[in-house]
Amino acid sequence: MHTKRVVVIGMGFGGVRAARALAGSGLDVLLIDRNNYHLFQPLLYQVASAGLEQESIAYSIRAMARQWPNVRFHLTEVTGVDFDAREVQTTSGPVGYDYLIIGAGSATNFFGLTTVQQYAYDLKELEDAEVLRNQILNCFEQAVTEPDPARKRALMTFVIVGGGPTGVEFAGALIELVTYVLAKDYPELGIHTARVVLVEATDRLLAAMPQELGMYTLQKLRSMCVEVLLNAQVVDADNTRVVLHDGAVIPAHTLIWSAGVKAAPLAATLQTAHAGGGRIPVQPDLTLADHPEVYVVGDMAWLEQEGKILPMVAPVAMQMGAYAGAAVLAREQGETPEPFCYHDKGSMATIGRNTAVATAFGLNLKGYPAWLAWLLLHVYYLIGFRNRIVVLLNWVWYYWFHERQVRLITRRKASDSL
Amino acid sequence: MHTKRVVVIGMGFGGVRAARALAGSGLDVLLIDRNNYHLFQPLLYQVASAGLEQESIAYSIRAMARQWPNVRFHLTEVTGVDFDAREVQTTSGPVGYDYLIIGAGSATNFFGLTTVQQYAYDLKELEDAEVLRNQILNCFEQAVTEPDPARKRALMTFVIVGGGPTGVEFAGALIELVTYVLAKDYPELGIHTARVVLVEATDRLLAAMPQELGMYTLQKLRSMCVEVLLNAQVVDADNTRVVLHDGAVIPAHTLIWSAGVKAAPLAATLQTAHAGGGRIPVQPDLTLADHPEVYVVGDMAWLEQEGKILPMVAPVAMQMGAYAGAAVLAREQGETPEPFCYHDKGSMATIGRNTAVATAFGLNLKGYPAWLAWLLLHVYYLIGFRNRIVVLLNWVWYYWFHERQVRLITRRKASDSL
């Protein structure tokens, strides 16, 4: 009898937990990702706002896999899966499996707005964060030598779409970068004319959290001089302006889209049913109805629990991935795993350097205690002891000295208009 | 009488020292660079060998300029200088000056070998180091799934051209990355088949240092399994092979060129005399013969001292830049500055994690004492307290744990052949 092979597609939060559960088992485990690192996405906005280096939030998969003797890694892109042949198709050739765990994650959802997709920046991949940071700093540099005051102000206007945690956190970090750091870097600019605008389609921020916390966040951001537009939708954009659904036009050279995610493109190639956002409905044990050897975890999975679809967030992916890995092991022992049950331990979002909101176990926290909890949790979940030290070092620098040390434009733009 | 304006082109070692000397004076100082940071070039090879993040060796110019109230910065590209009109031409328009200090540095010299220039990697800019690191790691990843043993070995073969400090240091760092770090990351590869080849056109390494140290370096590198080819020149290359002058062919997917530098392209646009490497001859006080208000410092300057042309190295640029800044101040006080005199405080080069060679004040050091001196000096000259801490942290990690923590491929390649 041959050694069973488990293939894990995607080394995000779901895939990493699955790999950990399967490590040291007697199974042959192959991890596949198109990047050679696990990315800690929740901190991407910090790279984009010059608070962290990109390398602090990424951890080499091979470094992880060193202590897992039965685990291998291939850097390659998955193009599809043949469920009948039990083969994963990749750009380096086909890979057979006995069990498959798919955790390829999600992609930004532009809701069919093609001009927006063309001009907007988003925050899903490591490169996105560096590109956005470069854009922000380049805009200010360009503003220094821009003679036309209207164009100057448009260069210093940043529109963020989406009032969920990503948009809120980035808006807070960006307004602080401008107010405390760039104001000193650019004494020759009237920094007070810079604008950070947060656009949200519904009537509240952080809609997935209790209303009290959403209201607190709204007031806090406005007190920090973020312009928050509620019940507003972006419908069009080009490289110098953003257009809202009511005809309002905001002259701005930078549009950041964090208004929605959908399943990764791989999902559409799979011969299965699809639900909202292209996600794949799974059984209570996270397997596909017709292919019980295939698990789908994380953002790609569509599963209802207590009348609600589980959200596309990191803790869900982590618990699903850990479950899938353990379930495979249980089945190999001849056992039948219990159905998956997600334990919601709460959620949180920061609003600048020492404020946050958090909700857990029915408790709502705001202000400094919430922020401290956020900091400890994120450092804990970061992978890599050295990464934790570097991140803490950067945050100490920022907290005590109000310095963002990574104000570097790392790729020169061509001299065409921004 | 108007305030005199000093324009400094280039914020390398020369420009930074000039700016420091001019800060706090009554003059209006404008710094120009096409990047918004000062780059610590001597440590580029460490970013390329996954030992440091790129942000650790770059320091924001605006952060430096904060404590210099009379100093401003423009991020722009200089296209030429009109000496008669006393104007610097830039992509953002012309800039007038009363004094000009040009320190635009150097570029890689491929000696007219166009195919080599097309396929070789070099180490002059921050992006170069990240691109080279990605290439090295991508080659190993590709080797994992490569079925042909000959192609596999060519993927794991790295040819470095140039036996000066840059080539020596990179060869040592690369062989250690492969031997101590990648060997553990890629247990499935026969890492012992990887090759690091150092090609030098003359019959010795580190030709600018005493022969004893060059011999020591040669023996050390060979004991670390670097193949050193002396009296050898690369004449041709494509993406899978390197061709030497005697017809030898080395199958290799990565060629790194550190065999020479020449003056930055700006030099060729200037209406002055030119000497070897396109460098600009200067008077004993570093000014242009026909334009005494213009100084040229650093790699671009051609100046003889005691029968030898001053080399294109960082200490020369630092001393020239400091001199030029002080000279401008002296002239504004009505004084005549002494001629420039370079004080050679020695040079050094590392060979891996705890060995180096150094020569100073007639003394030759090798081994561990030289390495310690190298470490302290480089940390001292790095700009930015936080940068020093991060770099020391990375080096501690490397020295004690033999870990190179930055083994990330940060930009995905298209799936075409490497």
Automatic annotation (TrEMBL), chains A, B:
Gene3D superfamilies: 3.50.50.100
Transmembrane segments: none
Catalytic reaction annotation: a quinone + NADH + H(+) = a quinol + NAD(+)
Keyword tags: FAD, Flavoprotein, NAD, Oxidoreductase
Domain FAD/NAD(P)-binding: 5-321
A GO MF term: NADH dehydrogenase (quinone) (non-electrogenic) activity
Family classification: Belongs to the NADH dehydrogenase family.
Stated name of the protein: NADH:ubiquinone reductase (non-electrogenic)
